[in-house]
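anyone seen this seq b4? input:
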Amino acid sequence: PIADVCQNDPNPTLETTSLNGINGTWAPAISTATLGTTTYTFTPTAGQCAAATTLDIFVTTPVLPTFDPIADVCQNDPNPTLETTSLNGVTGTWAPAISTATLGTTTYTFTPTAGQCAAATTLDILVTTPVLPTFDPIADICQNDANPTLETTSLNGITGTWAPVINTATLGTTTYTFTPAAGQCANMATLTITVKPLSDATITPVGPFCPYDSPILLQAAQSGGTWSGNGVDPVTGEFNPSLANTGLNPITYIIDGLCGDASTIQVEVIPAPIVSTIEDVSIMFGNSVNLIATGNASAYTWTPAETLVCDDCQNTIATPDQTTTYTVWVEENGCSASDQVTITIEYEPIVFVPNIFSPNSDGQNDILYVRGQGILNFTFMVYDRWGEKVFESTALESGWDGVFRGQEMMPAVFMYVVDVNFKNGSNQVISGDVTLVR
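predicted toks r here
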């Protein structure tokens, strides 16, 4: 007998010599294309005492291997395993080699192992594009602010976790990575968060100042801010005590921006003391003037002190021997003030010349000087008895020592002429004799 054969298997061979030695032929031609039982007739070759016989061959339907479907896979996921034994027991191999690198649907063919009445079958696997999780951006934050919350479910529904742990203590820009939970066709995503440094608006303390002190540039720990307050330039930070109020002046420095800062200090301007004295006055030589100071100070100092009765009294008496400007100074809490008065000395228009002098180097009356008071300028000339000029001077400190042309003059009587202009505007010319003795 011929065992059942599988449709479209190779045609089995029918022997042309029977088991008991009869030769013959078969009909019809054998074929496995037709399902069911086919009867084939063996006709003995002529000349043999043999009868025709038949043989039934049953062609069966091939089994279709069945498999569980493969769910859609994500691109570049691990390759799924394709079973080599079907659910209905057919063994075989798959082609081509499975790969998740290529997007789209790929048809894989299962070819049963030889010897099984089974048909080839196919399985479609769809490789899909991973979803990119999306998130709202995180605005810049300041150092040591509360850590922002990173959502564990993206705007498009992907769940996952973030790494590293967010920390606002570290300055700069950090990239955080979102890893989707297993079983989701989704790529990893990133989010950058910038932590900015806190501004420092701390102002360097200054002062106190007096109202007349020079302007000063205020200093802060960090530049770029704006200033406000009495006496301060908003851009440069120059503080001018003369433009501020006396007492405490609040000065504020503000650095704008996300991580800005503000600072305020009190800058003190001490009120300057007040002092004034009398108006300028003119007196005759030898007279005195009461110098009176008015003000709110507890101590007063007058300069120059040489011609004063008291140089540390609020009121004093001045007896100058020449025109003098007096200054009264006061100081309170480190601030000072002053005022001045000029006392002009007027002289009576007097001029005289001694009538004798002795240039003998004994230290007494050795020089012939012009003397007087109220003198603005003068010309002093000395002549011998022949009318020759032996000396001339225009300075009170310059007198005649009895020498003419390098020679000491002999004792004699000389004539002098003094032409004087006085400070009061008058003029006088005097002349006389002077005796030179040795």
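The two ends are 190 Å apart (CA to CA). The CA atoms of residues 10 and 326 lie 143 Å apart. kinda curious what u guys think
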